[in-house]
Every structure is written in C-alpha cells, then in structure tokens.
Amino acid sequence: MARAAAASVCAFVFSLSLGVCLCSFAVPLKLSAGSYNVSSDVAVTRRVVPAADGDGLSLASDPSGTVNFLDMLNNLHGDHGRGYYIEMSIGTPGQKVNILVDTGSSNFAVAAAAHPFITHYFDAALSSTYQSSGRTVAVRYTQGNWEGDLGTDRVSIANGPNGTITINIAAILSSEGFFLPGVNWQGILGLAYPMLARPDSSVMPFFNSLVQQLGIPDIFSLQMCGAGISASSAADPPGGSLIMGGVEPTLYQGSMWYTPIIAEWYFQVEVLKLEVGDQNLNLDCKEYNMDKAFVDSGTTLLRLPVNVFNAVVEAITRSSLIQDFSSGFWDGSKLACWMKGETPWRFFPKLSIYLRATNTSQSFRITILPKLYIQPITDVDGTLDCFRFGLSSSANGLVIGATVMEGFYVVFDRAQRRLGFALSSCAVSGGEALSEIAGPFSAADVGANCSWGPAKEPFMWMVSYALMAVCAMVLIMLLLLLVLPCRRNRSGEITDESSLVRHRIK
User: Which of the residues 79, 153, 296, 385 is marked catalytic?
Assistant: First the structure.
C-alpha cells in the first residue's frame, strides 16, 4: 500500500524502485499464433531414499525408505513446444489437473475459472478443504501473466511421493497470454526458491512444503524426453520423469557433473564460455551471465543475452554449409523447410556451454547436437518438413531451457546447493546421442567471478522507500511555494512580478 501511495505522488521514483525490486520469470511455449513464411524398461524394483556415495552423489540405495522412484518414472507428459506437465489431484474430493513443471518460478497456481484454451479447471467451491487467505496475487512471466486469489488446499501426486500435503495455491481467475492453444495443462508448478514467490517470499513454494511435510530429501531431478517430437503432433507420449526426493540412476548414463548454485532465487549458475562447433566466442565471461544465467524447465528455448545471441548466430552462419538463411529464421519469425525426408542437421555445428565445476578452478562442458536446437515443427502439404531455430535473444539473462535440458538428466540438489548434469538415457535419436558432456577443464583462462548476483530484495525495498520519501519532501516544498502568499517589493528584492517561478507556474 505504501508503494502504491508513493507511486501516485512521484511516478518516476516509483518506476525506478520497482524496476530494481521485481524479478522477471520465464514461462514456456514460444508457440507462434500466426502463419510462418516458408523459406528402457527397468527390471529392478527399489524403494529408496538417496544416500551419498564417496563423491557426494545422491543414489537410490536404501530399501527401507519411503520414496518409490519407480512410481515416478514417466510421470511427465509433453515436449519442448507444449511444456512438460504432471498430473496432480487437488482438494477434497480430489480434482485431477495437469500442472506445468517450471523451475524458473516459485508459485503453485491453477486455473479456477473457465478459459477457452483449457478443457477443465479446479473448482475451489467443490473442495471442502480449500481455504482462502483473502489475499490476491499476480505474476507476470516473460510470456503471459495471470491474477488470482491465494489459498491453501490438499494436494497429492499419483506418480509421486506417497502422501498428501497442504500447500499454498493461487487460484487463477484471469490471465493473458498464459494459457495457449494446443497445451494440455491447467496450472503451473513453480519449483524455484521462496525469493521468487509472489506476492512475497512468505508464500512457501510447493517443493519446500513437500520436503517439510513428508520428510523427503531436499533434491529433485528432471528427465525431459520430447526431443525430436513435432510441436504440431497430436500424439501425447510420456514426456519424461520428475523424481522428487533424489536421483534415479537408470535415467542417465556416464558420470554426473555438478555446478554450484550461486544464488538461491532462480537456479542460478555460472557460465564460463560458449563454443559453436570448435569456435570459442571469446566474449568476456560476464557477457554470458548478464544479468544472470539460470536453468529453467519452463522456458522452451536456449535464450541468450543479445550480444551473445548475435555472436552465436554469426558463428553458426560462418560454419554452416548453408550461407543464405533469411534473418527471419534466426529471430523466430520464419521456418526453414526442406523436402520431406531430407534432414538439415548435417548443415549445422554443435553448441557447447562451459559451466564452472564445484571445484571452482575447473569447468565442464555440456554440448547439444543440431537435432536439439534445429527443431521440427510441422509439414506443408505433406511435401515439406519445416524447422525452427531453438535459440532466441533475451533481455533478462541467459536461460538454459528445454532445448538444452532435453539432452541431459538434470539434478536440482538444493540441499548441497548444486546442479548436476549427466547424459539423459532418452536423448537418443536413430541410435545417435543428441548430447555430449566432458571435463574437467581448467578455468584459468576466465575470470574468477563471471556472475552477477540477484538484487537483494530487502535492501532494495529500503532504497525504494528512501527515494519515495525524498520525492514526497520535494513535492511538499513545491506545494508550499504554490500556496504561500507572494510578498510585494518593499526593499528592492526580487518579487513575484519578476521571478522565474511566476512564469513557470502560469
């Protein structure tokens, strides 16, 4: 309320303070509304709680635990074009809804009113356990926004941890650009930290409540298996797995490589450099992390700061066997199409991202092959296969979205403040691996600190109030000048008739 009042007093101060206090979210599904121009089955059974091996890796090893990871296999549906979602039951009696899995935000929100793009919604009036908090909440993402009422209710996940928990729920009553045609989810599950929760960090996020109430380890992991699936396909096969409480070894191959979580708001990491094919972009490492770099399952593409994106496009153009691409392909406004049966991937280079390792003097490299970032979309009259570019420019940081995550099994180890990457067992197409991982490499050739930290919200609130207080004092002084009677010239001093103030206010 204080900020709103101050805004009416001094808009420019409010705009400045708001801009540095609020965070931007990324939401998925860069589905274009208009027309484009054409230019392993597991044989074992284990009931587990993660335990640490000699390298600190959480493994499924305790037969007496309470988290059944096998129940969670293939509990996700969707793909990078439509988002990855999980089925949940909300309320008493339970109402089944599909909820988008988003590691780039922190609110649990579900449609609570009809919308033309969703098939059903959560009816809070039919749940005997729903309790409204009397507070409203609004969240704006990179794409779309919604508004609704805060409340609590009971939630269970059939293919998740055993048990029912009470969580904070935002009942979405209105939205714009959030629910899109062709999606099959009715809400969003924010898995990031409380600092991103709205209206403030006192709203405990879903996973914090899950850990607190069921006692599972503070770790989850994601396998996203939609690589190579056309976003226009009507099929809805199993899209991957969200493992809550640990790591499932059958979902990855080879070694797990960890990078520190350098700030607990988004899952912020430190990117040291990018390569296109064998070309190092040779940018200052802070360019890659401006103003942050984070891992977000709710963002469709690999999003890069503008300077980095331009450098990547230039490097791909130099190394690609195709030199005459329309600029519309790179900015996402056009598709590139080939005759049906032709494959364009051989024309493009690999893309590599170097992340700082937990041993901060070292790094490791995650690499995606062209099949992950030159993405099939649709066909034209049954004669053309069309593809989009799986990268875009970003004004709010480097975002490692589904384009990259589909190549890896990603571990969000919140307990030890680190993210793990390993080759995903489903990132294979036609017998060919779609991703690579390698290391360790020396980080001596980059800066000791390449990252930008998050704005400290309590501190920025103080700055905001201080600026607004100064603005209010200035306004009071101006008002006094307006209402005080003007004095006549008694001794030759400057008077109302000759002052600049008079001519400025009339």
Answer: 296
